[in-house]
Amino acid sequence: MKAQRLGAWIAIAIGASYFIIPLLGTLEFSLRMRRGAYSFDAYESVFADLQFRETFGYSMLMAVLTIAFGMLLVVPTAYWVRLRLPQVRPIVEFVTLLPLVIPAIVIVFGYLRLYNSSSILPLTGSTSGTNALLMFSYMTLSLPYMYRAVDTAMRAIDVRTLTEAAESLGAKWPTILFRCIFPNVMSGVLSGAFITFAIVMGEFTMAALLNRPAFGPYLQLVGANKAYEPSALAVIAFAITWLSMGLIQLVSRFQKSASPKA
């Protein structure tokens, strides 16, 4: 028994070192911009860069819009499939998994082909249209994670009983959806939202090919032209991802602790 525990701890230590040691090396290198001493000069250079603030703010805005529109698409779809159309559930699940199979570069080239300036819907002919197209692209990439998170949360509640109870009190469909269903699946929505946020902040392919000032292409640009700033940006990007994962864990624990009281 002790040998098994020791072997398990050794395996965990090896796995953890595989991820932690390169990150520590990146962090250490990002602090060596000043010759002969550790400093935060690389981070100061990054935060003082106007392009960093612009691209980071742009990606933050796109992440918020992607989460909002994705939530408005996924929650009603998952609700309607579970309540009225359970027979199409395998088809919907298959469709939501397609972004994991089809490469992002194939998706964005398809969008460029369909929505170029000479098409019926020329989204790429204007800045606002291209921004909308990028947001829809991000929604496509995040669809598997958002749908799975919401669908899992919806399995934990009795959708049919909630709907029938609300209808018996005279509630209309918008009221049922936004006042009965949304609050009960909010943990799943938040989990999907944090994953979506991490995806949008680090995505490169779609933003680069659509020529949008996003954070992902900025990371690549700095990495190709500077030495210490890319390491600082990598640490910042990892911190954003870890923060999102930590918030997901907090939401999950809050849901578990609130379930017995409910």
Topology readout:
Elements: H1 2-30, H2 41-48, H3 50-83, H4 89-101, H5 104-114, H6 127-155, H7 159-168, H8 173-184, H9 186-202, H10 205-209, H11 215-225, H12 229-261
Verbal overview:
The chain is 81% helix and 0% strand. The protein contains 12 helices and no strands. The protein has helices at residues 2-30, 41-48, 50-83, 89-101, 104-114, 127-155, 159-168, 173-184, 186-202, 205-209, 215-225, 229-261. The two termini are 39 Å apart. With 262 residues, it is an all-alpha fold. Its main location: membrane. One of its GO terms (biological process) is transmembrane transport.
Number of strands: 0
Q: Mind telling me the CATH class?
A: Mainly Alpha
Please report which band the strand proportion falls in: under 5%, 5-15%, 15-25%, 25-35%, 35-45% or over 45%. Answer: under 5%
Instruction: Figure out the total of helices.
Output: 12
Question: What is the residue-mean pLDDT, rounded to a whole number?
Answer: 87
The named CATH superfamily = MetI-like
InterPro entries: MetI-like, MetI-like_sf
Membrane topology: Multi-pass membrane protein
Protein name: Binding-protein-dependent transport system inner membrane protein
Family: Belongs to the binding-protein-dependent transport system permease family.
Structure keywords:
single chain, 262 residues, mainly alpha, MetI-like fold, 81% helix, transmembrane, transport, MetI-like_sf, transmembrane helix, MetI-like
Quick take:
The chain has 12 helices and no strands.
